[in-house]
Write the C-alpha cells for this entry.
Amino acid sequence: MKDQNDALTGQGAANANPQGDQPNNNNQTMESLLETESLSVELPQVGEIRKGTIASISPSQILVSIGAKSEGIIAGRELEQLTEEERTALQVGQEVNVFVVNPEDANGNVVLSFKRAQEQMSWENVERMIADETVIDSKIIGFNKGGLIVGVGGLRGFVPASQISGSRALSK
C-alpha cells in the first residue's frame, strides 16, 4: 500500500511540490491567508456612513455597491421618502453616501438609507459650525407662536422669538 500512496503523491517525493523543492503547505486557513496577503473585507456596521456607487435603479429598489460581500439595498419606505427630483437625480455609476441601517436582513442584504446619511452629515456639519461659532444664514420656512422655523442644510432649525430683533420684524 505504501508504494501506491507514494505513487499518488509524486513517485516517492511526498514533501515536494511539482515546482521544485519547497514543501507543499495546504494547511492554511482562509483567515491566515487573508492576513498574509494583507486582504480584508470590511463588513458594514450599523450606523456607519459609507460611500458607495449606485449599481442599479429599479422602481422598487436601488442597489448600491459599498465594498461589502454583496451590494446594499435601498427599498421600501426609505425609497418612498425620496422626492421625485431626488430620485431622478440618482444615476447608475454615481457615488453616494449611505447609512447602514442593518448589515444583514433576513434575505442576506445590507439595508441602506440615503436620507439618514444626508441627515447625519447635515447634523455633523451644523455641529461643526456651532463649534466654530459660524454665523448661519438661512431662509425662514415657517413660524409658530414661539418663533421662526429655518432651513439649515436639509434640517429644520428653530429661532426663538426672543432672538428676533423688533426693528427687523417691523420692517417686513
Summary: The CA atoms of residues 31 and 37 lie 10 Å apart. Residues 11-17 have pLDDT under 50 and may be disordered.
